[in-house]
Write a structure and sequence with these properties.
Blueprint: H1 2-7, E1 12-20, H2 23-33, H3 38-47, H4 56-62, H5 64-72, H6 74-86, E2 90-102, E3 113-115, E4 121-123, H7 127-132, E5 136-139, H8 144-160, H9 174-181, H10 194-203, H11 208-217, H12 220-225, H13 227-236, H14 249-252, H15 262-273, H16 277-289, H17 292-308, H18 313-326, H19 333-352, H20 354-364, H21 369-381, E6 386-387, E7 399-401, E8 404-406, H22 416-427, H23 435-441, H24 449-458, H25 468-491, H26 521-532, H27 545-551, E9 566-580, E10 590-598, E11 601-607, H28 609-615, E12 624-634, E13 637-647, H29 651-655, E14 658-664, H30 672-681, E15 684-687, E16 689-695, E17 699-704, H31 715-725, E18 730-733
Helix pairs in contact: 2-3, 2-6, 5-6, 8-19, 8-20, 9-19, 11-19, 15-16, 17-18, 19-20, 20-21, 23-25, 24-25, 24-26, 30-31
Length: 734
């Protein structure tokens, strides 16, 4: 915005980017276009080595498995041969995340423009072409983290009167470094990914320069080259810190003798080879561009000049052998330090003011249900409760409420900022005394039936004393009544017989409508999930805790450790979307895409046509299930390919090898066995039954029922048996 105002809208444009087909992406695309199974494309892609500069030439050289697969499977060979010819072609155009070009006259005087599929205007030339034309290119990074920092500081000032000066924070704050060392960096800028948190726990940063180094090192090139592990070993003292030449110690000491920054290479070139600052900068640019022919020319120059300045040729060659692979991951120190400083500021606020910090993060995600759900998970991990919305306590955004955070009204799906602001403005006059009081005081054009339904489902009126089912049933009548009252007031026709109408029961807080039974728990939970993105009253999986403990193998948050493995995981299905298969052997059939959520997170799932045909009769949204699935990576995210799925409801009974019934004769009457037999005969099946007769302190005997007494276990049968023999009398043997 500033740049367009300063230099003119016509003189400024963002820069296009072209995504190129690299081996992994190319084989997946080719497999899809040829209507081959997704699993085949994934299998081939996994045979291609990882790394930002991997091409097919290197893949054939470094992956014997790829060559074997091509030799043994013609489908694999066909996919790879086609993908190899496509390598390097532009796949699609997008907009550079930060690049902006500024011209002295209208941009169209210099180059053509392009409109993306998101209706964004960019140049038709990429950043390299723009630079060659002599136009000014600047990278502007718009970070929402800066808004979070500002909001946190404002909240702390308002709540406690403490004025935090983020520009003069002490850079040796021990609680902040302890937060980094423990890996508790959820929502900390650049340090919140699972891999980075693991690296922090192993590297244990102690001072600010450690944070900058870790920020620079946690990049694909350095990870692939093993540089990160070398750094961790040196930091932990299991590897010795060494330097290629004694005179390089002042340059490399802060990174433990490891090349991390481009600026270090520039300084080495000056000290060892006598480069001028301009020559060193050209070397830095050559490294950044990663062009082989330029690097080769620089190698010859570096070795020659190093020898001229007294370094033995062999030592100069060894030093260049460290610099050359550095081109794969070399990072700009000024960039790393700036990012580390922003990270330090966010970590400082989290360490000292976690409530306000998380409230600001949640507020920044309003409009993104997925974003809010992620931060809510981070709050849970940090032991901070997020309270449901309350019509008399919530702010527009998320706000601190003692040691917890109160959900913001504008964050409720179906409410929005305009309605939230109207509610807060009216509440500023006096709190809302009842549901009817709320409706009569708000403009129905801003707070309409849809808004009311969302507020009710979210639990925002719970504190007013009426249950959600009652309010939902009365909302339409209450809106109509309020509209009539406003009309009467406008016409000057006050109701001479004010008060409750004849035959109408007056409820708590002045609401004039009768109570009705509350919604079932499942319905309440669904309403909360639909409006808030998470469950407040409970969780659909809570009542299946025993079943999950017995049958599931892990939680969704732990699946990153199980890629390419089969796993049993419990969760709630959601966002079901049917997809028609357009090509291949299953053309015309239907598959299902969905999400699976447990208390630790959410993951995408795919149920392919053959399985979907078997389960489509009962699979639905908000259903708790146990799924056996293969964990795979898809587009940089984890996804489950479902192999088997079953409802959690009744799973103990369905999987039981035997039903064991315990009868305490001290409490059972003489006819209990006869009545048990009658109940069991009503549920014929294949599962054997045993009955253990117990008289405490006297005897215990187990009776095996005859084969003719085999039953079909079910929750209803369990209830019937417990009604006769008491709670805890039924045990399923697995």
């Amino acid at each position: 915005m500033y740049v367009t105002k300063r230099y003119g809208r016509e003189n400024v444009a963002q820069i296009v980017t072209f995504s190129q087909l690299k081996p992994k992406l190319a084989v997946r695309d080719v497999a899809r276009v040829l209507s081959l199974p997704v699993a085949l494309g994934d299998r081939i892609a996994k045979l291609v080595p990882d790394g930002p500069d991997v091409n097919f030439e290197r893949a054939f050289r470094d992956s014997p498995g790829l060559k074997e697969a091509m030799a043994s499977d013609e489908s694999v060979a066909k996919v790879v041969r086609i993908a190899e010819r496509l390598e390097g072609l532009s796949r699609h155009a997008g907009m550079h995340a930060a690049g902006v070009v500024i011209a002295p006259r209208p941009i169209t005087d210099f180059l053509p423009l392009y409109r993306t599929n998101k209706d964004e205007i960019t140049t038709q030339f990429d950043m390299n072409a723009v630079e060659k034309m002599g136009l000014l290119k600047i990278d502007f990074l718009g970070l929402i983290t800066l808004d979070v920092l500002e909001a946190t500081v404002a909240a702390v000032r308002e709540r406690s009167g403490v004025a935090i000066d983020l520009d003069h924070l002490p850079l040796d704050d021990e609680p902040t470094y302890e937060l980094f060392r423990s890996g508790r960096t959820a929502c900390v800028f650049q340090f919140d990914s699972g891999g980075m948190r693991d690296l922090l726990r192993r590297a244990k940063p102690r001072v600010f320069v450690d944070l900058a180094a870790l920020n620079a090192l946690y990049r694909p090139g350095a990870l692939d080259a093993g540089t990160v592990e070398d750094y961790v070993r040196r930091r932990g003292g299991t590897s010795r810190v060494t330097y290629p030449l004694p005179e390089l110690e002042p340059i490399l000491s802060e990174t433990l003798g490891i090349l991390v920054y481009q600026e270090q290479v520039m300084r080495i070139a000056q000290v060892v080879a006598g480069y001028s600052l301009a020559e060193a900068d050209l070397l830095r640019k050559a490294i950044g561009k990663k062009k082989r022919e330029i690097m080769q020319a620089e190698a010859e120059k570096f070795i020659r000049k190093a020898v001229e300045h007294g370094t033995p040729k062999k030592k100069a060659q060894e030093l260049w052998s460290l610099i050359e692979p550095f081109a794969r991951y070399g990072f700009n120190k000024s960039h790393a330090v700036a990012y580390a400083l922003v990270a330090y500021k966010t970590a400082y606020l989290k360490a000292h003011y976690p409530i306000d910090f998380f409230a600001a993060n949640l507020s920044a995600e309003i409009g993104s249900t997925d974003g809010i759900v992620k931060v809510l998970g981070d709050c849970q991990e940090s032991g901070i409760a997020v309270l449901p919305p309350d019509i008399n306590e919530s702010g527009e955004s998320f706000t601190a409420a003692g040691e917890a955070i109160r959900f913001g009204l504008a964050a409720i799906k179906g409410v929005g900022e305009a309605a939230a602001r109207a509610i807060l403005e009216e509440r500023g006059r006096r709190p809302f005394a009842s549901f009817s009081d709320f409706i009569e005081r708000l403009d129905s054009r801003l707070v309409n039936k849809r808004t009311l339904d969302a507020l009710i489902a979210a639990g925002a009126f719970d504190s007013l004393g009426r249950n959600r089912a009652t309010l939902a049933g009365a909302s339409e009548r209450a809106l109509a009544r309020a509209a009539r009252r406003r009309e009467e007031i406008e016409l000057g026709q006050s109701n001479l017989f004010g008060g409750a109408g004849e035959g109408v029961e007056t409820g708590p807080s002045g609401d004039e409508f009768p109570d009705v039974p509350e919604w079932p728990l499942d319905q309440k939970l669904k309403g909360e999930k639909d409006t808030l993105g998470f469950y407040v009253t409970g969780h659909p999986l809570t009542r299946f805790a025993d079943e999950i403990e017995r049958f599931a193998e892990g939680r969704i948050a732990e699946l990153a450790e199980r890629v390419d493995q089969s796993v049993r995981v419990a969760g709630v299905l959601g966002n079901l979307k049917k997809q028609k298969i357009k090509k291949g052997m299953n053309e015309g059939k239907t598959m299902l895409k969905a999400t699976l959520e447990d208390t630790s997170g959410t993951i995408g799932v795919a149920i392919f046509a053959s399985l979907y045909e078997k389960v489509q009769g009962w699979v639905r949204d908000d259903l708790p299930v146990l799924a056996t699935a293969n964990v795979r990576e898809s587009g940089g995210a984890l996804e489950l390919t479902i192999q088997e799925i079953t409802p959690l409801e009744g799973i103990r009974e369905r999987r039981a090898r035997e039903l064991a019934i315990r009868v305490n004769l001290a409490y059972a009457d003489e006819n209990v066995l006869t009545r048990l037999q009658e109940r069991l005969r009503r549920h014929p099946g294949t599962t054997p039954v045993s009955i253990r007769l117990v008289r405490p302190g006297e005897f215990e005997a187990t009776l095996k029922a005859a084969d003719s007494m085999r039953i079909a276990p079910s929750p209803s049968l369990t209830s019937e048996i417990q009604a006769l023999a008491g709670e805890g009398s039924v045990e399923y043997v697995f």
